[in-house]
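HUMAN:
Could you generate one sequence with tokenized structure?
ASSISTANT:
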Amino acid sequence: MKKTCKILSLILICLLLSSCWDVRQLDDLYLVYGIGVDISQENPSKYLITVAAPTIHSDAKSPKIEISGEGTSLRNAQDNIQNKASRRITYANTKVFFISEEVARQGVIRHIDSLLRDPEGKGTIRLLVVEDKVVDLMTIQPPTSPLVTLYVNDLLRESHYMSTIPLTTMRRFNNAFKTDGIEPVIPFIRYGSKPDEFLINSIALFKGNKMIGKLEEIEGFSFMVLTGEVQGGFMTLPYPSEDTNENPELALRILRGKSNIKTEIKDSQLHIHHQISLVTHLSEFTSPEPVYDKKVIEDMQKAANLHLEAICEELIVKLQNQYESDNIGYGRYVRVNHPEYFDADNWNKQFSQAIINIEADVGIQMVGTVQ
């Protein structure tokens, strides 16, 4: 009995003594939700890093705090920021890494690599290229959120759901950067008509480490379709009509999409056959024609197929001729299917010379009305 009591006492003591030796209270921390990088205006050879965190204290004058610091690298600037902070700064909760367009055009992998090597850096941190200065954006107070980072993070999620942009995390960018046959992309944010209004409907194109251009609006949707990431949103197009006085429009709500890529070499020429399919519901149809007529539905699908093929082909021509950059990732298929043809060092040149055929298949499942 005494032995049992001793054992129980020891167990109880161990439970009471168990704790984290390095535990810190929230009041002692700045939980960084967003981090941004600019080129320093005073010293262009250095970077200006800005972090944003909630203050937590109920008696704080502001619900958030932004701290900026300069440095020759991201890590060096982070150390300088810590010297300005009254609490320990932790990056374990970081959601978005903001990158100014100026920095993006100089190269971003050194900054991404630095965060990935940090024990607190998560590969799931989302990347975003900013039209202007990051430091200015991070001080804006949005109407529905205490932190602009949380507001922008929600915008990224919704824009992705509407099939306007991909969600590029640090891990995804790093994988694309290090993978032969594909070039990285990052969503691009610009200001709207109001100081606290933002638009995320563009995509920054990268070739290797550096930003080379942007895809705007409908091009972003085409990119999502071609990469097989489309999962929602709408496709609006003109509907052909025999009445020249009418300009009917057709809007389809996208439920899901699929992409299938096949490659072949004919007479030393690379051919890429890309099949894209969308499952949709009719959302809007401004023509007086009856939507429950089978022929009308077939005409709608035909018009949607032609429209989808046209906008996707237009994007591919732009990537091949203007940028000579395979941001879709066709090279991954060529590398596997035709290793004797694929040249990792010159793939973008091979991509620009490839013959790419797009075949669309848009199906309308429901018309939203009854006869």
